[in-house]
Specification:
single chain, alpha+beta, 2 helices, 8 strands, globular
Length: about 120
């Protein structure tokens, strides 16, 4: 059965979607922007600060669903500029130091709210 996951510790959806959906022991987390859920704004203008906030948001949703970062099996990273890849990757490897999930990374034309990075995540147990 499909279960909708929500937490006030991650940004509320800014459109008609859920923060995450769990089904058959898989958790699908919608793309997370670097929005601070306490202020509802993007506070950092740098890729490293934005990526840190994205991971705080992902971790909050994982925790709300009873998962942890070690359960992540796939990440998709969207960058507003591929030149930000190295900065994003420096932060990313802090969170996935071993047994890293599968990953794709793309440069896209624009991201919502002028964000530099967005990451969607799939976890399983």
């Amino acid at each position: 059965m499909k279960k909708i996951i929500t937490t006030p510790n991650a940004p509320a959806a800014i459109g008609p979607y859920s923060q995450a959906i769990e089904i058959n022991n898989l958790l699908f987390i919608s793309g997370q922007l670097p929005i601070n859920p306490a202020t509802s704004i993007i506070e950092s203008s740098e890729i490293t600060g934005q990526t840190e906030q994205v991971f705080r948001n992902i971790a909050a949703i994982l925790e709300a669903a009873g998962y942890e970062l070690a359960d992540v099996v796939k990440s998709t990273v969207f960058l507003s500029d591929i030149s930000n890849f190295a900065g994003m990757n420096e932060v990313y490897k802090k969170y996935y130091a071993s047994e890293c999930p599968a990953r794709s990374a793309f440069a896209v034309k624009d991201l919502p709210l002028g964000a530099l990075v967005e990451i969607e995540t799939v976890a399983g147990r």
